[in-house]
Write a structure and sequence with these properties.
Strand content: under 5%
Order of helices and strands: HHHHH
Largest sheet: none
Distance between the termini: 10 Å
Structural class: mainly alpha
Mean pLDDT: 94
């Protein structure tokens, strides 16, 4: 049985998709989330995985429930099966 791994590229891709759907820049989102723009950029590029606290801040700044983002992450992981 294949169990997909929650890799940083998938997490970054999903966060970037939500940000783009909201029509805001990395600079604006990082300001709203109170994280560095370079940190957000590294997350979106898949170079870093956000901590749970950072993930929560990003979701709050995007005005999206964490559960909504998690569901999208699960959908992306299911595509990899």
């Amino acid at each position: 049985m294949y169990i997909p791994i929650l890799d940083s590229q998938t997490v970054g891709k999903v966060i970037a998709e939500f940000r783009k759907q909201k029509g805001i820049s990395q600079e604006v989102l990082s300001g709203f989330a109170d994280i560095g723009r370079s940190h957000l950029s590294a997350i979106e590029r898949g170079e870093r995985k956000p901590t749970l606290e950072t993930f929560y801040k990003i979701c709050l700044a995007l005005d999206v429930k964490m559960s909504t983002v998690i569901i999208k992450l699960e959908e992306e992981l299911n595509k990899l099966k």
